Amino acid sequence: MLASTQVVDMHTHLFSPRFGAMGLSGIDHLLTYHYLEAELFRESRVTPEEYWTLTLTQRADLMWKTLFVASVPVSEGTRGVIAVMSALGLDTRAADLRAVREFFRDQDPRAHMTRVFKLAGVSQVVMTNDPLDANEAPFWEQVADSDVRFAPALRLDRILNDGAMADAAEVRAFLETWCRRMRPLYMAVSLPDTFRYPEDSVRSRLLSEAVLPVCREFGLPVALMIGVRRQVNPSLKLAGDASGRADLRALENICRDHPCNRFLVSVLSRENQHELCVLTRKFSNLMLFGCWWFLNNASVVEEITRERFEMLGLGFIAQNSDARVLEQLIYKWRNTRRTIGPILARQLEMTQEDGRAVTRADVELAVTRIFRTNFETWVATT
Ligand code: HDL
Ligand code: ZN
Questions:
Q1: Ligand 1 atom showing the smallest separation from residue 238 Cα
Q2: What are phi and psi of 2, to 5 degrees?
Q3: I need a labelling partner for 25 at 20 to 30 A (CA). Which of 212, 254, 265, 279 fits?
Q4: Whose CA is nearest to atom 11 of ligand 1?
Q5: Tens digits of per-residue pLDDT, 21-31?
């Protein structure tokens, strides 16, 4: 059932074909994924400074040699590359990347994308769209055919975290314009472990006076992704972020103070997961989603998904991939099915043991809810 259910991947960093080179695909991008760069710098004598002077091809070659030839790929990230190559019929013990690069070069991009979505069992992904990103904004000026497999989400980090705008009226007008232009499914922001709400800060004021009112005006949820400690090691660039335990009273306050807003919430610290389940039980305008980033490892996914079934029943969004490279969909959703399938089966088995027969329709309902319809219902504006 899980294998045949098409999922909606509600948070990724993928881009539809209309965004050109912003959409990443192929072995060089798969190998230079920042999850793997963090592992490389621990295994290789090459320093980050030296690494950043290399070309993309040189970085991918170094990654392959260091983590896949000179070592055994057992981590989540390295096994992911193996799973993608295997699914595409490529030699996972190749001494070098020549033949693999040739394969990707020979693919018709559209046919390849369709094949990847099929292999991953994904019907739609939600992008991360930043209207203040100079590379991305011009693509929104052009009217282009939209690919229904890619839905927009309006990302707020530059406004709420980086001080791009401080005036609430200006932010409100800006967001209204972009909601009309982009038609996002939701707005999103990543927040530090130190996030407080309410507080005497620009971020808190912009949330209250601009973001949340515009979300109400357009009927959009806002995704709060809490617990990121950005750039704890700047030399690693994207790989330099870490996680921190957040004070979820901020979440409690914002959900209670804004009952007419809907919230999607993911927190990055494993230590916050149980209390997030408790809070989700307190607020019907709070929907918990995914096993984010450093949590997207089988050992943690198992633990937090069991807590969620026990405390929330089927009322949560089980996973998002956070994929940055197209083919990552294949391994991230393969891993999710492999990990969460048995957990759901055990929960349903216990329902049966406790005295309620479980039918095929029950299983289908459960799978569909946690991997698609809970999200689709949450973002429906009608
Ligand atoms: O802020 C985010 O959306 C995070 O997912 C970051 O993009 C992070 O770098 C990431 O890719 N996590 O998987
Ligand atoms: Zn992300």
A1: 9
A2: -65, -35
A3: 265
A4: 322
A5: 999 999 999 99
